Amino acid sequence: MRADTFDVPLTASDKGPAPTREDDPFDRLSPDLRSVRLWLDYKLWQKWEPTKETADSTLSWRKEFLTEFAEADSRKDRPLGSLPS
Q1: Mean of pLDDT over the chain
Q2: Is 28 left (phi over 0), alpha (psi -120 to 50) or beta?
Q3: Strand, coil or helix: what is 63?
Q4: Contacts of residue 36, Cβ cutoff 8 Å, sequence gap at least 6
Q5: What is the pTM for the complete model shown?
Q6: Residue 50: which of 4, 3, 5, 12 has the closest Cα?
Q7: Residues of the chain with pLDDT > 90: what percent?
Q8: For residue 19, what is the DSSP state?
Q9: What 3-state class would DSSP assign to 22?
Q10: pLDDT computed for residue 68 by the predictor
């Protein structure tokens, strides 16, 4: 993802409607877990302010995620052996 992808600022309408149900693959959770997942999605939706999003904040999160992913992938002990192949 490049920084120039975020040249156009987000608007309040980019937030979209509040989540009211879980889609695939989360719709396969048990009813109890599905309701908890929906509650958490709703809480996240409430907190998210698209007008405050910046390229720096999004790219910073992405770099952190990729670093964590690379560190996890570099571990020598693989609990599943060579799976998936």
Answers
A1: 81
A2: alpha
A3: helix
A4: none
A5: 0.56
A6: 12
A7: 38
A8: P
A9: coil
A10: 83
Amino acid identity at 45:
W
> Of 58, 45, 54, 60, nearest to 10 (Cα)?
54
Q: For residue 65, give Cα distances in angstroms to 35, 62, 68.
A: 27, 5, 5
Helix/strand number for the chain, H first, E second = 2, 0
Q: Are 41 and 33 in contact (CB under 8 A)?
A: no
**Is pLDDT at 5 greater than 60 in this prediction?**
no
Q: In 3D, which of 11, 5, 18, 3 has the Cα closest to residue 50?
A: 11
Q: For residues 31, 20, 43 and 58, what is the CA-based torsion angle, rounded to 10 degrees? A: 110
